[in-house]
Amino acid sequence: MEVRGARLGVIRQRLAEAGADAAVLSFLPDVRWAVGFSGSNGLLVVRPDAAHFVTDGRYDTQARQEVESAEVHVPGYDLAKYVREAGLLGGAARVLVQGDHVTLSTLEYWADLFESVAFVPVKEWLVDAVAAKEAWEVERIRRAQSITDEVFTALLPLVTPGVREQELAAEIVYQHLQRGCERMAFEPIVAAGPRSSLPHAHPTGEAFRSGDVIVIDMGGVVDGYASDMTRTLALGEPEAEAKRVYQVVLDAQHAALDVVAAGRTGKEVDAAARTVIHAAGYGEFFSHGLGHGVGIQTHEWPRLSYHVEHVLPENAAVTIEPGVYLPERFGVRIEDLIIVQAGGHENLTASSKALLVL
């Protein structure tokens, strides 16, 4: 088991900085980050002098095996009511809650239960700490990405005319699980021909045809940590503009990889790629941000986007995935998963980025 005691220290330091007496964490990815619990129901109460994890009876054994540095409580399903009855907040008067993940109805219920407590919603409270991965976390992400690379290689002989998008998507799931992933990081994207111009297309019963451009986006989860990779290939010789767009997208990704480093903003890295695509005349067809953080969640902080100024911390795992999508014609996206480092990055993605023509 990993040592997470220092993570509760981070939470306690932020409590002190906020002038709060306690925090209640209800966002399960952050609960897992803090104490290791991987189930679907739980609250983590952190005070300066104690930490309590509360879950229901389904997770009695699991919680006692997984949770580190917090006392485990297994009451019925009304976890907040138990927190009150057991006095787990102590004499706390000011309690931080994750306002970007708690519903209004839940917050109102807590306020009714704890009449003397002021619940203070905070936003993105731990995102920077979660983003800066420890070595054991990077290793899990590396293993997951290695499996995804292997799956991509295994898929190539299956990409033939007549095979349906859904068939290849099912194979992607099987291949990830067969190689040791516990689950998929997200539903695979397999989009061929004009449907490849839809950035988040769902696989359909459409069959591959000669001349199709095909976008494949996939990732699996190893010990709780995700991978993410996109490759675009051609089934038979693609049209000339598809080749040109592919090179533009690849050049844009290289430009971003050349500048990404700890301390830069995601907006700066996005701009490096977006400038290349804009100069080539395809700026209006790059319709999403350049990338996102990856870890316990497939999409987590930081974002690499022209909309935000997130500063990239050292050891963050992020995607670099420029794309160009020409409506009703074709789309191209190339995505690598990297670890941000001081002065550069480590690329965890081994699959070739040369245009594959099958």
The span between the termini is: 44 Å
Number of strands: 20
Please state the CA-atom Rg, rounded to the nearest Å: 23 Å
H/E element order: HEHEEHEHEHEHHHEEEEEEHHEEEEEEEE
Strand order of the largest sheet: 4-3-2-1-5-6
The third-level CATH topology of the largest domain is Creatine Amidinohydrolase
Q: Which superfamily, in CATH terms, is the homologous superfamily of the largest domain?
A: Creatinase/methionine aminopeptidase superfamily
Put simply, the count of helices is 10
- Sheet having the most strands: 6 strands, mixed
Q: Using the 3D structure, state the CATH architecture of the largest domain.
A: Alpha-Beta Complex
CATH C-level name of the largest domain: Alpha Beta
> What overall form do the CA principal axes indicate?
elongated
Fraction of residues in helices? 25-40%
pLDDT < 50 runs, ≥5 residues: none
The average pLDDT value, as a whole number, equals 97
What number of structural domains do the residues give? Answer: 2
Based on secondary structure, the structural category is alpha+beta
